[in-house]
Amino acid sequence: MSSNTFGKLLSVTTFGESHGPAIGCVVDGCPPGLELAAEEFAHDLQRRATGKSRHTSARREADEVEILSGVYEGRTTGTPIALLVRNTDARSKDYADIAAQFRPGHADYSYWQKYGIRDPRGGGRSSARETTMRVAAAVIAKKWLQQRHGVSVRGFLAQIGEVKPGGFDWSAVEDNPFFWPHAPQVPELESYMDALRKSGDSVGARVTVVADGVPPGWGEPIYGKLDGELASALMSINAVKGVEIGDGFDVVAQKGTHHRDLIAPDGFASNHAGGILGGISTGQQVVASIALKPTSSLRLPGPTVDVNGNPVEVVTTGRHDPCVGIRATPIAEAMVALVLMDQALRHRAQCGDVGTITPRIPAGPGLGEAE
Amino acid sequence: MSSNTFGKLLSVTTFGESHGPAIGCVVDGCPPGLELAAEEFAHDLQRRATGKSRHTSARREADEVEILSGVYEGRTTGTPIALLVRNTDARSKDYADIAAQFRPGHADYSYWQKYGIRDPRGGGRSSARETTMRVAAAVIAKKWLQQRHGVSVRGFLAQIGEVKPGGFDWSAVEDNPFFWPHAPQVPELESYMDALRKSGDSVGARVTVVADGVPPGWGEPIYGKLDGELASALMSINAVKGVEIGDGFDVVAQKGTHHRDLIAPDGFASNHAGGILGGISTGQQVVASIALKPTSSLRLPGPTVDVNGNPVEVVTTGRHDPCVGIRATPIAEAMVALVLMDQALRHRAQCGDVGTITPRIPAGPGLGEAE
Amino acid sequence: MSSNTFGKLLSVTTFGESHGPAIGCVVDGCPPGLELAAEEFAHDLQRRATGKSRHTSARREADEVEILSGVYEGRTTGTPIALLVRNTDARSKDYADIAAQFRPGHADYSYWQKYGIRDPRGGGRSSARETTMRVAAAVIAKKWLQQRHGVSVRGFLAQIGEVKPGGFDWSAVEDNPFFWPHAPQVPELESYMDALRKSGDSVGARVTVVADGVPPGWGEPIYGKLDGELASALMSINAVKGVEIGDGFDVVAQKGTHHRDLIAPDGFASNHAGGILGGISTGQQVVASIALKPTSSLRLPGPTVDVNGNPVEVVTTGRHDPCVGIRATPIAEAMVALVLMDQALRHRAQCGDVGTITPRIPAGPGLGEAE
Amino acid sequence: MSSNTFGKLLSVTTFGESHGPAIGCVVDGCPPGLELAAEEFAHDLQRRATGKSRHTSARREADEVEILSGVYEGRTTGTPIALLVRNTDARSKDYADIAAQFRPGHADYSYWQKYGIRDPRGGGRSSARETTMRVAAAVIAKKWLQQRHGVSVRGFLAQIGEVKPGGFDWSAVEDNPFFWPHAPQVPELESYMDALRKSGDSVGARVTVVADGVPPGWGEPIYGKLDGELASALMSINAVKGVEIGDGFDVVAQKGTHHRDLIAPDGFASNHAGGILGGISTGQQVVASIALKPTSSLRLPGPTVDVNGNPVEVVTTGRHDPCVGIRATPIAEAMVALVLMDQALRHRAQCGDVGTITPRIPAGPGLGEAE
């Protein structure tokens, strides 16, 4: 399969560079009959967009989605759905200075070594601009998951630098520019980001995504495990350096008696596993977290080499996010939703449409919800 | 692609259950002409095997590999290499009691919900016995990587419970049953494991794998990224709940000025990135770590339900590892080696056989080596 | 996907050489719960086997199938089903003379050019021995198709050399060693083959496969079309040089008014299309035919070159079929059945389990059945 | 892999409906550094286009290709190349009458049965309009094959109805609107087509494609055979009902002594095999032929049913080709070129960049060239 395509039955192929004429995607394998209109993409694309607050890059893209195919009279036909977004606010001249240099911590050098040619404008293909189309594609997946299975996929910013949420409330997440789950901390975060931006430095972040309503049985052992596919899907997001399912790296220090989620007829007692055992969903909340590195595009100078191998000092002057994790929440949600829909179709293929296997154990307590 | 196959050009299909007649794999896409003999599998299979020390499961398998195809007069022919290992020490009666119960923290319930049928003997397909064939397949990958590119893949146990290495020396790793990189701590670990085994409980662990000599340019953006594929390959190992590349989750609290690996003509100054930028290798050490949960197969009883939905108390009496992480080092190495070889072939397909792109920056300091 | 694997959701990976220790396959993606026993493979493997009549190769293989995995207490579990057949009657010394020569019309030269190494014993991987495992895998597909959808897949020999059937009766096909649909011609065919065998020459053949009961809707446009996948599956059979769907090459001289299959509420009026339109089944009989070349392994000498490029005269003394088409009927059925089951699962994935779309047009007249 | 994508390493994903806003494709896996400009697509798209002579559909499309990604400063970068063509001459009202009817011989009924919804305008996704993008994608493949390996791919119309070429001259093929290889017959064909068009009927055709310069060794046994992949690629073209390699169905009546292509140090003596043995190229011309059915969109009425199952009489009034085979030559070339480039990359992946295996036998006589 092509390396710009992911998903086995619901497959998404993305294309486009940061400063090229357009970015787009082809979503193939969507069941027929789903209602779909161009307006439906706006909400999640706006959640992902730059330029909405002073805490993200100043680039302002309309991100208007044109549906090129696969929809007839407002419903999907089962044929490939092509989505197109024109780039309108690219400032390629910002990159003229660094076209012949390799920014430390960027894909500049590795792309160059692989291909012997690279599009330096805005990072070209390696830019997070590409994630626009993941979010667009996932609008379809989220809708289908909700309509067909009652599954919802939500995310939040779980840490930024050293700052962790002091409380948790889903209803707060969409009411601040950080997707932060604890409203009282928002002013603190605003100050934190302002200071960071002024310093010219950047910082890392942690994002958590939760899927509610996933029925037991999704996921294909051994190499198509639900957690395995979440791992590659999430790791493919720009700047991600780690992926956790459930308790993640905390399990290293746990005892088995603590970790195992006990089962009772009225529900699981806990969810250390993050809703996945043996690569297959258990019916509990599916919980995944990612670590995003601090962006390497800094105003602060640093030593590097140019394409001739000479040492130079590089300064990045383009428009960049001081914390790429801030906008990563809808992107991470998108990848989780796309993986889930793909697995749902794969499960239906092998095991049939409707699960009727007993006993079915209730999910038990969910993250941030009344227990 | 089938869910029991991984790899795009070097593909590995595994089959077999823990207590079935045999386990095996088919390795397809291997270049022709590689010398290969059945004896070469013994070393890594013994590193992975149970029953060698009191700290792992007591099951003793000969793990004798039969080469069924793909090798002629001692060399690979380019056709699929099938490897077979007969199961010889299965004690299925240990599982009679739990055949109708769902062990908390195990794949029992999720397999049952997916398929409506499961082989309870030794965990069936969900058993870590399957990883034997990953290790066998990777013997081929390790050899090819070494011969063709001078790449070596090594791992070690980086944490067990709360215990972290107090020092680091590659030469210590293979001289103790834990793959522990600091010899003076081995007695402490022995005591720790003895106490744990007596308690009937289990504990988690962390394993790190390092690949030296990986040239820059391996990895396919966007959805075939080297780190993305490492993530799914490693997450597919039994009990893994988290994957990190380079600094992993530590990046959450890092600043960009700290994280970015500065570049000089005589080498990278650091390797926070773990040797991968934009999904493509940089020529530095490739570093990946995993978190392994404490096994859920405990002698200590716990509440669960049976297949009729009735509450029961379960006790696992089969032979199990109190810390599955101990034997995970060769398995994690295997997955890294298989991903690397696959990516090497993919890179050759698109970009040609020999990298000659300049400038090529030296790797810089490696983990645990003189800087 | 590996080149020794086919099928997207029901995937079959085969391995093994003609004179290696064993041949085998891994069938992945089979729905759970299907009853399956080792004895069920015998019937179709015997239909394909050599050594049953004087008209095929004298090699006598037991073709005993061992189920290595994927079946528990007589039912499939949804995990990969590995099947193994040991080679028992290989006479490799027959090939010593030709190990360093390229037989004209054989894969000897092309394998050598690709890999620089080849297993000359019995043709190695290029031998039709490999098709044993396709037939074995298809036993599972045929059973599932019959049980789940009432689909049956049958084939017959439609031409041998210049001889065409003088009549058609399904009930005759299994009562002669040629799968010939017209009993009165069997003595003529016996004489024809006896004379051919004495002459040392070989002859081509045509085989037709018919699938009854295929519901409308199977097949994925554009590049996963049912006819497209039948074409590659059938072309992959040894010696096949052509594939036709329905009227096949006869359409070149047809007019549209003749070719189009008119539709009436009580059924299609004809089936020139072979049951497939736009790559999707129509509910009519699916009809595919293949052309098999005369085998190139002849006792009659012919000029060629050796591995040093010197001209030599080659004579093939091993045991060979004077008409490989005779045994090709069960092999062609196998490939059709495997493609159909794969497409059935793919259709279920995207479009759901049960077709309820109206109007559904009856199939109309079938090949060789009362109209 | 998605069903609208083909190719393993050079993969092409197409999207778009006949009367939708646009059609397009994403070409992934192309080696970096290939020069590519939008103008280069015009030549082959014009060869495929309708509306150039009275013998094809009257629809006139500009078929202007926009390169959306993957090319920087005139060279491919190794990232996905997206190509877009806007539809400009769609007349959807022509289809209002037949939107609720199933045209006999068309994909109308089968799409309806699969999806329960279909875009009737111009045939929607099942229209040959889609092949525009195959031809566009293949412009890249043809160029790379020529530059890198000196491979050329050419086709011609080998039969139309009962009319066969009375001679053969490559230089004639591009000088008439039929791709006919024998100039003196062109007036006869003009009259034939005029009469056919007046009658309201249509006719079938045969197209042959020849690839010169293919080195030995391309093709992957067993299920990725070069001929197997040519078969599915060619069968996926609209209206194709049969595929032949080399002598194709003529082999049924051939003897082995006739069919086998004898080998001498100075070249193969003949090419009955069509340049492929055991699924791998031999270094001879690769020759493939297809049968195209007469289009079913006729002005002449015929009985069918409507979406309510009632019998109706259908008349197709849209713009259609009386012989779809006339424009199929560049489409068939495209599919052959795309398969060859994909196999070239796959061969390089497994077996290395440069073939140096001896002895290499010259190709011998080519079709229509001096022997």
From TrEMBL, chains A, B, C, D:
Arranged from A to Z, the UniProt key words for this protein are: Amino-acid biosynthesis, Aromatic amino acid biosynthesis, FAD, Flavoprotein, FMN, Lyase, NADP
Enzyme class comes to: lyase
- One Pfam family it belongs to: Chorismate_synt
Which co-factors does it depend on?
Answer: FMNH2
E.C. no: 4.2.3.5
Residues engaged in binding FMN: 125-127, 238-239, 278, 293-297, 319
Under Gene3D superfamilies, the record lists: Chorismate synthase AroC
Cofactor note as given: Reduced FMN (FMNH(2)).
Q: Which reaction does it catalyse?
A: 5-O-(1-carboxyvinyl)-3-phosphoshikimate = chorismate + phosphate
Q: Which residues bind NADP(+)?
A: 48, 54
Q: Which residues form the signal peptide?
A: none
User: Under which pathway is this protein filed?
Assistant: Metabolic intermediate biosynthesis; chorismate biosynthesis; chorismate from D-erythrose 4-phosphate and phosphoenolpyruvate: step 7/7
CDD domains assigned: Chorismate_synthase
Indicate the quaternary assembly. Answer: Homotetramer.
Family, according to the entry, reads as follows: Belongs to the chorismate synthase family.
User: What's this protein's function?
Assistant: This reaction introduces a second double bond into the aromatic ring system.
Query: Mind telling me which NCBIfam families this protein's record contains?
Result: aroC, PRK05382.1
Can you name this protein? Chorismate synthase
Species of origin reads Pseudoxanthomonas daejeonensis
Q: What is the taxonomic lineage of the source species?
A: Bacteria, Pseudomonadati, Pseudomonadota, Gammaproteobacteria, Lysobacterales
